[in-house]
Amino acid sequence: MVEFRDVQKFYGKFHALHNINLQIDQGETVVLIGPSGSGKSTLIRTINRLESIQGGKLIVNNQDLSNPKTDSNRLRQDVGMVFQHFNLYKNKNVLENVMLAPRIVSHIPEEENKKQALHLLDMVGVADKAHNMPAQISGGQKQRVAIARSLAMHPKLLLFDEPTSALDPEMIDEVLQVIKKITSASDMTSLIVTHEMGFAKEVANRVIFMDQGQIVEDDDSKSFFERPKTDRAQQFLSKIITH
Ligand SMILES: Nc1ncnc2c1ncn2[C@@H]1O[C@H](COP(=O)(O)OP(=O)(O)OP(=O)(O)O)[C@@H](O)[C@H]1O
User: Fold this and answer.
1) Which pLDDT belongs to residue 243?
2) Which of 10, 11, 195 to mutate to test the pocket of ligand 1 (most atoms within 8 A of CB)?
3) What is the number of structural domains in the chain?
């Protein structure tokens, strides 16, 4: 589903991603962790071309992102993204937020689209808010709507960029439970940047630990949390309380 080969990313002269080599197969749930500024968001954003790369090869869902002719809109039909700050359309109600892309991009008949949107809103536990505006719902509810909106396009790959970082503590768990539910119930591939170590432990098949723009460890979740191989990962984990 995703293959990085010696990928390099620069912001001006700053070398943000160094020689990234990484392969993610269909159905994997991969969690990306590491200190602040280590390049996690940058890496995840290259996968749907929100950030360009300056070297190496990046293949996503059989599309070569190193090739300027590759169509970003086509790519984003298969690759969804859930952002830290939800990014809902403020002037559209919850139901419309979920129905918009399937209507415009996939031309799904209106009734079918509505049925699907209500089903997804029910799945993430916010069906009763379908006719509310985003400003009228909580942060946790907004993020669950954003997840339903991504799922409405039936992505093959779903990227989560710190999906709970902007939430009050009491709302974090409701969002994590929804993510856990959708990643365990489907063969969708997920890549999740998170600082929630307890959740990472629970949901991930595989953990990638980054530091200073490099992948330092790439291991199955159990091995990583029980026996991190590098000093850097050990130090990182020792500073964090894992539940
Ligand atoms: N648009 C940008 N322009 C210049 N530098 C940037 C830009 N975006 C990120 N950086 C730099 O790239 C590095 C990696 O940033 P990134 O946001 O990917 O890290 P992160 O691991 O996701 O951090 P955090 O956990 O704090 O979100 C940081 O040093 C950051 O300052």
Assistant:
1) 47
2) 11
3) 1
The alpha carbon dihedral of 110, 112, 118, 120 has a sign of: negative
pLDDT at 167: 92
CB distance 9 to 187 below 8 Å: no
Gap from CA of 58 to ligand 1 centroid (Å): 19
- The string of pLDDT tens digits covering residues 146-160 is 999 999 999 999 999
Q: Is 14 in the pocket of ligand 1 (CB under 6 A)?
A: yes
In a domain, 166, yes or no: yes
19: in domain: no
Over residues 14-53, the pLDDT tens digits come to 999 999 999 999 999 999 999 999 999 999 999 999 999 9
Question: What are the phi and psi torsion angles at 4 (to 5°)?
Answer: -100, 130
CATH number at residue 86: 3.40.50.300
Compute the distance between CA of residue 167 and CA of residue 82 in angstroms, rounded to an integer: 14
* The amino acid at 129: K
Q: Is the ipTM here above 0.95?
A: yes
Q: Which domain holds residue 89?
A: 2-13+27-238
The residue whose CB lies within 8 Å of the most ligand 1 atoms, and thus the one to mutate among 41, 46, 240, is 41
Going by pLDDT thresholds of 50, 70 and 90, the confidence category of residue 188 is very high
Assess if residue 50 is contained within a domain.
yes
Contact 80, 158 (CB under 8 A): yes
Contacts of 99 (CB under 8 A, 6+ apart): 113, 114, 117, 152
**20 domain residue, yes or no:** no
Which ligand 1 atom is nearest residue 12's CA?
4
